[in-house]
Amino acid sequence: MHRRLALVLIVASVVGLLASTLVYRVLKQATAAGQQQQETELVVVAAVNMNMAETITPQHVKQVAWPSKSVPTGAVRTLADAEGRVVRGAILAGEPLLEGKLAPQLAGKGGLMPMLVPEGQRAVTIKVDDAIKESGFVLPNSRVDVLVSMSKEKNSLDRISKVIIQDVTVLAAGQTVELRDNKPVTITTVTLALQPAQVERLALAQAEGKLMLAMRNLRDNQIVQTKGVTAASLLSDAAPSAAPAPVSKSAAPIRVSAPLPPPRVETHAITVLRGNKPAEVLFTRDDRGWAEAPAPKH
Fold first, then answer.
1. Average predicted confidence (pLDDT) for the chain
2. Considering only CA atoms, which of 121, 120, 118, 125 is closest in space to residue 104?
3. Is pTM, for the whole model, over 0.85?
4. 216 close to 192: Cβ distance less than 8 angstroms
5. DSSP label at residue 161
């Protein structure tokens, strides 16, 4: 009896050991396969929120393991490549740093603005109306159209207003000080990112007329063709003349009747005594009855 019980216990222990070994091998293989599928690479991500034109310091970034298959193109891989760079647009905490969102590694060469200008474009600063300064609606990264109001022809009083540049990015908005009549005057300025051909148009418009900015929706990039507005077209558009009513060919012709003859006046002459002298008096009758006709003038 004791031998049989001992044999059962030995067999059960061997079976349990084999099962444990088999489960361990399966789990090990599964873990190794999962590690192979989740291969990671080190990338640099933002440790805090960063705004446009902010210089990256060691406190701004950190290195984390990122799934290899999900690493975005242009990701910064080392902290040394990120520190000292200037941010071109807002970056949120936890977001990978991309080369396209960072200015080139040219810190200290020409100031901050050259780092923010997109390649192939030019930064141009213009003076704008003081209303922009008061409202503060134009901010970096805003999208705007540029309008000019100027004389239609040289030495002409006829002016025209037209959109000359559309859907451009605002790089900076601020104020500067100029001397006018030996007194400092604060001027509101806006810096735009333009193509070289747009720079030429803007330079002429600023020299010949007055500039104005129109804000765009960030998702609206449609270019609209306009004819411009003059004083004459502005007034005609405000009060368009009514179009003549169409004449039907089947309408009956209008008949014009001949003028009516003048009304006939009934007259009657009688002889009366005035101062013992007979005189002939002419009486006429109309709708009100008989009346003496006025004496003829000699």
1. 77
2. 118
3. no
4. no
5. E
Between the alpha carbon of residue 34 and those of residues 30, 41, 122, the distances in Å are 6, 15, 50
Tokens matching residue 182: 């030996």
What the block records as the tokens of 156 is 């002409």
Question: Cβ(39)–Cβ(51) under 8 Å?
Answer: no
CATH class of residue range 38-116: alpha beta
Asked whether 101 and 88 are in contact (CB, 8 A), the reply is yes
What are the residue boundaries of the structural domains of the chain, listed by start?
38-116, 117-236, 266-298
The neighbouring-strand residues paired with 119 are none
Taking the C-alpha atoms of residue 193 and residue 175, their distance in angstroms, rounded to an integer, is 18
296: left (phi over 0), alpha (psi -120 to 50) or beta: beta
Say how far apart CA 179 and CA 130 lie, in whole Å.
16
In sequence order, the 6+-apart residues with CB closer than 8 A to the CB of 23 are: none
- Ramachandran angles phi, psi of 51, nearest 5°: -100, 170
Mean pLDDT calculated for residue range 183-192: 78
Looking at residue 52, what is its pLDDT? 76
